[in-house]
Amino acid sequence: MVNFRKYISCTAVLASGFFLAQSTVSTVLYSHAYDSQKNSLNLPSPISSVAEKAVLSAKELVDINVNTMMADPVLKNADWGFVVYDPKTKKIISSYNESSPLVPASTTKLLTTETAMSLLGENYRWMTQLEYSGTVDENGTLNGNLYVVGSGDPSLGTNKAGAWSYRDIISDFIGGLSREGIRKVNGDIIIQTALFKGNITRLPENVVWLETNNYYLPVGTTREINPANEKLIVKKAGFSPEKKFFYVSPYANQMVYAEKYDGNGTLTTKLPDAPAYLANSFRTTLVKSGIPVTGKVSPKMTDATPENRKMLAVYKSPTLSDIIYYTNQRSDNSLAEALLKTVGFQKLGDQTSESGRMVVTSHLKESEFDMLGLTYMDGSGLSRSNHVTPISQVKFLSSLMDEKYYKTYLSSLPIGGQSGTLKRMFLGTGNGQVFAKTGTLNKVKTLAGYLKTNSGKTLVFSLMVNNYSGSVDMVKKRMEKILEPALDL
Hints:
Elements: H1 8-29, H2 32-41, H3 46-55, H4 58-70, E1 79-86, E2 91-96, H5 109-120, E3 127-133, E4 135-136, E5 141-143, E6 146-149, H6 166-179, E7 184-185, E8 189-192, E9 210-211, E10 214-215, E11 244-247, E12 255-258, E13 260-261, E14 267-268, H7 274-288, E15 297-299, E16 309-316, H8 320-330, H9 333-348, H10 353-366, H11 390-399, H12 406-411, E17 434-441, E18 444-452, E19 458-466, H13 472-483
Parallel strand pairs: 5-7, 6-8, 8-15
Antiparallel strand pairs: 1-2, 1-19, 3-6, 3-16, 4-5, 9-10, 11-12, 13-14, 17-18, 18-19
């Protein structure tokens, strides 16, 4: 907690200056009506504000704002922590509860996206390939199979971060067939990827799945799960009767979105398996385009005796830097969870959240991350079991300034008043000077990143508020208030 003793002399000077200024001005401008109006609006005196800035340093003003917030009705009963840190001197400039483990919400994505960039590289891409086996005769008939070989591309067909649509990918695949002279397929279309080991998605403990009427749910199906054991738990307020959202009660921490239920024991998501959707759409388009396919679409996760195959076309995803930019700017939960699984697969050969968490925490330890108070449960920050301290966040962000990918990473963060999830904050003071990841859950608001001061310095900060009173907009205003004087540091 900030100590006020060192401000006694400053306050005395401020008080005397304020008194002198008031007595001088009042002889000319004093009005009972103005005094009454000023008190009713509870506006700060412009003279005292100017005098404050003239007498107190920027650091002292930050400290005073922090102390003021301790008694603020919105924050006084909240669990919150704050720290602003100088990465050059490696010293804390101002702080409050900087070592308290708090729920970070989507600032968790800072850890996930940085791990992916560090381990995979900025230019990493996922590949989705079209291959064929067998031979093509003089009539253009392929006597063999087509293979759609996926690699777990999280952006496949989504248009996110510049990703192609399914239509564009299919058009490119058909171009591959045309170049090879294939006009008929006498065989199957086989989906092959060892990455998709199962289609039931499990989520970490204590995950938030309904926040302010936004639904965060995984892709997958509930094959072999008895729908009779499922329980509908969505609140009726704001609930769309056209959609069904289920929590599968017999399976702890597992959620399923059911777009349709045919009564056959299987609930199906909107897009249960991206490669399967691509392959089925591909077959349909081929047939409509006059290229018959005699066989069916079938999955083949592993192949003990693979056929000799030749490449027809390959679709490359946007670069990892593009994916991370999209993820951090829009706080995209599904991409963050996919990045978690990707690093797990690349390092441990297993595309699961558990493997991803092991890889991320191992990377953080190797990077000398302050693990005290850290609980990393998911890649997106949806779990309320996630915890991190403000001081560990700022030291982590400070260490990244020496990495070769720092500029790319910094550019992925929303900019105050200008882009992403910060576009509506810092519209006045701080506009274009705050580069940070936001985080929002019910009664959780967080912000962590970099601050470009008016003197040209780069400072690092973390501000996390849990269990506040009032609205999230009230908390945002107080965040801006705390950080405003730090711009003059």
